[in-house]
Amino acid sequence: MEQRNQRGRPDADDFEAALQPLWLRAQRGDEAAYREALGHITKRLRGWLRRRMQSLPDEIEDLVQETLLAIHLQRGTYDPAVPVSRWVLAIARHKLIDLWRRRGRRDALHDPLDEVGEGALPAVADEFPVQRDLATLLGELSQAQQEAITMTKLEGLSMAEASARSGVSVSALKVQVHRGLKRLAELARKLP
């Protein structure tokens, strides 16, 4: 039976345990294992992308298919020393970034908001209270903890990506994230 984590989602370790033997058989030419592995991957990708693309629900299925095609084309680059799920999500992350870049370029073709008159803009509150609270709480952390949490938890970078961007070792980042999240939890409990 599939174990579930605290959020009610299947555990990543169980997913990897089910996927890896299938993927390794698929790499040796087992077509049935390949189809089954792609089925597991597809289901996981949809959920992963749905959480990251809430504002673009119509794009999810296209991106799932784009990612599956990239996985198929790049299957020869898979290194058995790397968890299959990590390799798959790295490809999915790159496809998602590509989508955001394409949309950014396309959206750049529209009139900039600076050129729209003040009366044509809708009235919007400055920020949502939750964002304001998070910004306040993050302000209570050390700069290193703020940066580590922002990169890994808010921007969704992997530890390796955050390490490359910041020049801080992965182990130091893990410590900063752990200590920062612990401090945030303490601060959040004190909120009215």
Describe this structure as you would to a colleague.
The chain is mostly helical. The protein folds into two domains: 12-107, Orthogonal Bundle (Rna Polymerase Sigma Factor, Chain: A), CATH 1.10.1740.10; 127-190, Arc Repressor Mutant, subunit A, CATH 1.10.10. Helices cover 67% and strands 0% of the residues. The chain has eight helices and no strands. Helix 2 crosses helix 3 and helix 3 (60-74) packs across helix 4. The longest helix is centred in the middle third of the chain and has 24 residues, at 84-107. The termini are far apart.
* Percent of residues in beta strands: under 5%
- The CATH homologous superfamily of the largest domain corresponds to RNA polymerase sigma factor, region 2, helix turn helix motif
What is the level-2 CATH architecture name of the largest domain?
A: Orthogonal Bundle
- Top-tier CATH class of the largest domain: Mainly Alpha
Q: In angstroms, what separates the terminal alpha carbons? A: 41 Å
Give the biggest sheet: none
Would you tell me which CATH topology of the largest domain applies? Rna Polymerase Sigma Factor, Chain: A
Number of distinct helices: 8
Percent helix, as a range, is: 55-70%
Overall pLDDT score: 79
Shape: elongated
Radius of gyration: 20 Å
- Poorly predicted regions are 1-5, 120-128
Oligomer: single chain
